Amino acid sequence: MSILSYRRINLITALGCGAAIVFAVLYLQEHLALKPCYLCVTQRFFVTVTGLLFAMAMMHDNFGRPRSIYASLSCLSAMGGAFFAMKQLWLQSLSEDQVPACGPPVEYVFEAFSASEIITILLSGDGNCSEVQWQLIGLSIPGWVLIGCIILLAISLFQLLRKE
Length: 164
Fold this sequence. Notes:
Strand order of the largest sheet: 1-2
CATH architecture: Up-down Bundle
Radius of gyration: 17 Å
Number of strands: 2
Distance between the termini: 11 Å
Structural class: mainly alpha
CATH class: Mainly Alpha
Oligomer: single chain
Shape: elongated
């Protein structure tokens, strides 16, 4: 049995996605009291979905078409996370006069709006998304999410294209 078996890669990747979400919620949100913006919530969604797809692929440990489906879906999910991370990085790069207006807090959006309105708001982002709240070695949170999503995309492509 190879040390980099299909099942092990899926398990390690699913655990990595889980660790990223735990870090975001417990450390960034709870410990540092950073409020997630709309695009942060959207990125968390895509990282969570990608992790769940890897977990399901690991549990099923299937061959052929189901493997291709799981890997393809995780590719799409990782690309979604990368897209919204890039969108937030773009908002963070705007000058103050170009930043869109700030909207209501995320908690209020979930309480006051319908599901379709919530999705539209979360996908669009606002002025809150342009604020850099935390950095590690010069990269903001969406920068790290982008790197993570690129890694997830590479692993998904590897799982999709590998021969057993």
